[in-house]
């Protein structure tokens, strides 16, 4: 269930379609082939998710043996096939295995669980101890990772453009946060509401990374997917919250198209109305608020964003101004008229989003 009265899990990937589209057109089959196969697989999974939503997604309940406020992680190995979840290879409480990809997935699920529990008193992504399942080694040279409404799935990448998708912990946190959004505001995955959906995943993905590393807002790199790009790529990550539009500028991938302010808002019918592109605007607003306040970003700025996501007032089709207005309300409700409120107001003003 969600606070808006509907359970509508969506299929959300970390690599935007426009990036894969660019790769798929390359003359080198070593680059184009994996991208095309990934796009085809994503299209299938997206359709499958839509049908599952219509028919009814299976309910997932915590095991009777799971303790409250404790993670219940299970990692599966697809062995380069696409049947989910695959072969069970590591369960909660078991020692690390030889496969580092399995261990990274396990640790990333745990880091996500810890941030939500310790910072926001949320017991797993649904708030009620939902088991966290992940499948690794999905398909062959699969250039993506996704949340399909029920579990996490990681590809190994093609080792030409993308490396193993379990490497960046914020990718894991990003995708699992789509689950948090699914169980709370359930933001429609299109246009500005879809960009907010993506932005919230970037925000909390970054906070999970910062929390796990013990970084302050000033120490953080504010990159999404750092370590994911192969050495041949001219770039640092998939996205930058600090400076949207600067994450990569590559002869194969092209230039990062994210805008930082509403002056450069991208109007497009692709990628569900530009959900991965225009998310740069609310991303940058969060960065500005968090760095203005300083300290640990998951505390004051993160708390305000979390209050809005889970507070029940954020509508499924909310636009940027709706979300911004609610952050102002949440900052005032929690912190009064102090610096938190001023930081939030100034951040939205700087990116050109009005607060009513």
SSE blueprint and pairings:
Blueprint: E1 12-13, H1 17-24, H2 29-55, E2 73-77, E3 87-91, H3 100-120, E4 132-136, E5 145-147, E6 152-154, H4 169-183, H5 191-213, E7 223-224, E8 239-240, E9 249-250, E10 254-255, H6 271-274, H7 280-293, H8 300-310, H9 320-335, H10 339-351
Parallel strand pairs: 2-4, 4-6
Antiparallel strand pairs: 1-5, 2-3, 5-6, 7-8, 9-10
Helix pairs in contact: 1-2, 3-4, 3-5, 4-5, 5-7, 7-8, 7-10, 8-9, 9-10
Low-pLDDT ranges: 1-7, 53-62
Largest sheet: 6 strands, mixed
| Topology order in helix (H) and strand (E) letters | EHHEEHEEEHHEEEEHHHHH
Estimate the mean pLDDT confidence.
Answer: 93
Rg (C-alpha, Å): 19 Å
**How much helicity do the residues have?**
40-55%
What distance separates the N and C termini? 29 Å
Q: Tally of extended strands? A: 10
- The backbone outline, from C-alpha atoms, is globular
What fraction strand? 5-15%
Q: Please work out how many helical segments DSSP would assign.
A: 10
Strand order of the largest sheet: 1-5-6-4-2-3
Structural class: alpha+beta
Describe this structure in words.
This protein has 356 residues and is α+β, with helices and mostly antiparallel strands. The protein is 43% helix and 9% strand. The strands form 3 sheets. It has a 6-stranded mixed beta sheet, with helices on one face. Helix 3 crosses helix 4 and helix 7 (280-293) runs antiparallel to helix 10 (339-351). It is globular, with a radius of gyration of 19 Å. 52% of the residues are buried. Mean pLDDT is 93; it is low at 1-7 and 53-62.
